[in-house]
Amino acid sequence: MKLYSLSVLYKSEPKVVLLKAASDVSSFSFFQRSSVQEFMTFTSQLIVERSAKGSRASVKEQEYLCHVYVRSDGLAGVVIADSEYPARVAFSLLEKNPREADPMSKVQAELDETKIILHNTMESLLERGEKLDDLVSKSEVLGTQSKAFYKTARKQNSCCAVM
Q1: What is the pTM for the complete model shown?
Q2: pLDDT tens, 25-76?
Q3: 55: enclosing H helix or E strand
Q4: How far apart are CA 4 and CA 32, in angstroms?
Q5: E strand intervals along 72-147
Q6: Beta bridge partners of residue 57, listed in sequence order
Q7: 11: CB partners within 8 A, 6+ apart
Q8: Element counts in the chain: helices (H) and strands (E)
Q9: Contact status, residue 36 vs residue 24, Cβ threshold 8 Å
């Protein structure tokens, strides 16, 4: 069970435009890789060109199975895999948000979100700690000033006699 290529294309009226493609040709010999890559690109464009907007299909080409999904807005995805690769999995890759299709990327996204929240919480705690330090130092200064005021007031009041 092997996935060879995943391509994103745009189906416009005059022609099909390849937006992005990722492929794994490591199982082929070094000298075959470029021609296999070219075959996958050409086949992806041809299948999207011949598919109607808003449709999905599976096409067998040589020993490969090509799964295509063309959305109504013209955005299309093509998965090229061997015949053992389940069509259900291929279409879930094409139809779903990538984060929903792969459980690991969903977990990674949740971890990233949690990390951001924790980072923001730590920053706010540090700011709060700095504010508390400022309050402590101000209260110490106020305590010192009140003692000085008390001593001065006591000295001034000690020289006068009450009649």
Answers
A1: 0.57
A2: 999 899 999 999 999 999 999 999 999 999 989 988 788 899 999 998 899 9
A3: strand 55-61
A4: 14
A5: 75-82
A6: 68
A7: 48, 49, 51, 53, 70, 74, 75, 76
A8: 4, 5
A9: no
